[in-house]
Amino acid sequence: MKKKLLSLCLSALLCNMMPAVSYAASDVARSDTMASDITITHKAGSSGSSIETANATTPTLSLSALQKLQWQPLNTHGTQSIILNRTSQQLNDGNIRGAIAAFALPANQGSLEITLNSLIKDKQVFSPNVLVFDEQLHPAAFYPSHYFRYQQPGIMSTDRLEGVLKLTPALGQQRIYLLIYTTHSDLQASTQIIDPAKAYAEGVGNSIPNIPDPIARHTETGTLTLTVKSERDAGNIMIGQVFSAPTPKPATVGSTQVISAPVITAPTAISHSSTSSTVKPVLNDTEQYFNDAIKEAISHGDIDKALKLLDEAEHLGSPTARGIFIKTIKSKK
């Protein structure tokens, strides 16, 4: 039965009948993708629908404003703490207010999983929004503040706002960019948190006392923790383009509203735009990453995963993934 299945897969490939599967995000992030890839619980109590509406659109940022920012390099291992205060970079543009954090992430290490926490201290919290840019500083994904939900304290964690971003950089890029900021609308809101006595009673299984929960005020400053790691699975949002095409609208996560994208010309300092419809050369380490993943999936009998990896690799321009798939399938027969 197994040999028959492998033969069918091989025949389908050779006949070029395999349907294409795109991992690039559409204009609207699908709710089923979010449910499977992102785990968030406990919505911030007093961040109402008015704030969600106010922050539902991508901010329009000029190229000159983006070029003035200092983009801090960020590795794909460990957790980094960021203190936003009066000495941090500031951006007051449109609805954006106060301290910001700007990061440059490697784009040649496969899909990225980014966990962003904003810690609640002294009943105050920085309510984050995240705008993701490709290598040419084109906006590609937008995470409004209501995407980052309140998390109760645990044994090793404190009260916080948390969100998980899953991104897949297109091949041929060296880096993508992450801008974290808050807005004037967010500063008018607050987050209801759990009373410490309630949290303790819930943790030890005691009766939960009937006492009011405190409110955390949203501020222009705060403390963030950022954990970035590479992952083998396909990401949630495709960052950047493989083929030259009109600038797409950024995918908005946490909202079903279609977002209008600002038109931003790639800066000369970091622009690597392609003027032809050909695929950018595949980086050797990224191509090897997909080839190894395909062989490993087949060796474990996970043909479905191998096919998805193959499709993603070819979608991003790999010239060797199909040959690796066919060769590995034949060796298993």
Descriptive terms for the model:
333 residues, alpha/beta, Jelly Rolls, six-stranded mixed beta sheet, 9 helices, 15 strands, 26% helix, 25% strand, globular
Q: Would you summarize the structure shown here?
A:
The chain has helices at 2-14, 31-37, 49-54, 63-68, 184-187, 196-204, 284-299, 303-315, 321-332, and strands at 72-73, 79-84, 96-106, 111-119, 124-125, 129-133, 139-143, 149-151, 160-169, 175-183, 190-192, 215-218, 222-231, 237-239, 251-252.
Task: Describe this entry's structure for a reader.
Among the domains are: 63-233, Sandwich (Jelly Rolls), CATH 2.60.120; 284-332, no CATH class. It contains 9 helices and 15 strands. It has helices at 2-14, 31-37, 49-54, 63-68, 184-187, 196-204, 284-299, 303-315, 321-332, and strands at residues 72-73, 79-84, 96-106, 111-119, 124-125, 129-133, 139-143, 149-151, 160-169, 175-183, 190-192, 215-218, 222-231, 237-239, 251-252. The strands form 3 sheets. The chain has a 6-stranded mixed beta sheet. Strands 2, 4, 8, 9, 13 and 14 form a 6-stranded mixed beta sheet that branches. Strand 6 and strand 7 (139-143) form a beta hairpin. Helix 1 (2-14) runs antiparallel to helix 9 (321-332), helix 7 runs antiparallel to helix 8 and helix 7 (284-299) runs parallel beside helix 9. It is globular. Residues 14-51 and 255-280 have low confidence and may be disordered.
Helix content: 25-40%
N- to C-terminal distance: 11 Å
Give me the number of helical elements.
Answer: 9
Proper CATH architecture of the domain at 63-233:
Sandwich
* CATH fold title of the domain at 63-233: Jelly Rolls
Strand numbers in spatial order across the main sheet: 1-3-10-6-7-15
Main beta sheet: 6 strands, mixed
InterPro entries: MalM
Organism: Xenorhabdus vietnamensis
Pfam family, one: MalM
Signal peptide: 1-24
